[in-house]
User: What shape does this take?
Amino acid sequence: MLEVICDRPSLPPSDAAHRRSLETGMPAGQVEAIYQDTWGHLKAKVDVMYEGFILFTTTCHGETTILDWSFGDLPGSPWIAEDMMNFVLSKVPERDEGFRLWRFDGTYRELRSGKGKFSGKVRPMRVQYRFAGRRAA
Assistant: This one.
């Protein structure tokens, strides 16, 4: 069984606040307050276990992206998005080449410390190319 605890934000708090401040051009404290006012109602409830999955991939250009996800009645928010991206990036091999597809099945839980915790299994998925027309030589 795999267990990963994701620090939120992925950078130390002062660095994450600084990054968001630079992105928006506003003071860091104001940005965090706006996040809470805007998306605070979407934040995961503390110590509630959300069961679900994440389907993610690496492209032929080396980017990692989340294709689909669901954790029951947990809605999308900046916090779950950041936790999921940190999690999937920790699962992709550093020198991965080419297209790959993985699926995480398990649970997500918001800890009292403010960190998100994923528990479950990550499995590679079999991908079969099906294109009409010419066949590969």
